[in-house]
Structure formats: C-alpha cells, structure tokens
Design brief:
By secondary structure, this protein is an alpha+beta fold. The protein is built from 2 helices and 2 strands, in the order αβαβ.
Amino acid sequence: MLRLGPDDVSDLDLIAIGIQATPDAAILDRVAAEVASGRLRVSIQETFALEEVPRAFDRFASGTLGKIGIRVSE
C-alpha cells in the first residue's frame, strides 16, 4: 500500500498531513448530510459483493485511488 508522509513529498509543491480520527455519531451524521446534499463526494473506485471481501482486501492492499465499497444486500 502506498503511504506518503511529509518526508516523501518534501521536494514537491505539496503538504502532507497524517490524520487519524475517531468520529462520534454527531460527526458521522454531519458527514452523511454533506454526502446526501452533494456538497461532499466520495470517489468509489470499485464495489464488491459481501462474499468478495477477501478479494476487496487484496485490491485495497495493492493501492487504490478511491474508496472500495462492499455491497451487503442487493
């Protein structure tokens, strides 16, 4: 998996900041509202059925440009 930090982009015109969060229900509700309104868009690169989760993890580990979705029902 490709991970970039500040040292990896020091010669580029970029700023890299690592963020780790533990959102609570209020934050998740706000993010959901932003997505529902269209103000926030999430790039989903590929979607897998629930029984394909092992393949989805393999795909995620190989590096992605967007999110990977798992369908839990049809």
